[in-house]
Amino acid sequence: MQLDVGKIYDGKVTGITKFGAFVELESGTTGMVHISEVANSFVNEIKDHLTEGQSVKVKVLSVGNDGKISLSIKKAAENPPVRKDFKRSNGNNSGSGRRFDNKQSGERNPQTPEAAFEDMLSKFKQNSDERMSDLKKIMDNKRRSPSRRK
Description:
By secondary structure, this protein is an alpha+beta fold.
């Protein structure tokens, strides 16, 4: 059976390595799912997401001339998770219509991305100014102290 690139197949995990997982497809051929193609979130340990013998749906990304088959579990997902940190606007990239989640209080924050960035930038500048002031005081004290050299 020849595999079609872009098509989704059922498979079974036959082996797990630190860089990916090997999946045997219905046709008896084996392909590899790279660690970056296991899940939509960061994968530190594949064993946290997959186990040997597990049935999975995979999408064929490529079939090399040498017979190597590249697979993806995350691209085979029917409904990829929607990012929860903002709502999409109507194709307008001006930022209007987007709302960010306030992670600390769990409430919605009505700020636009630009306003949120400006707020973060002003806090950074304030923090930076305070640190620079502290450094200047330390340097002035060192300059005023008597020299130990003779």
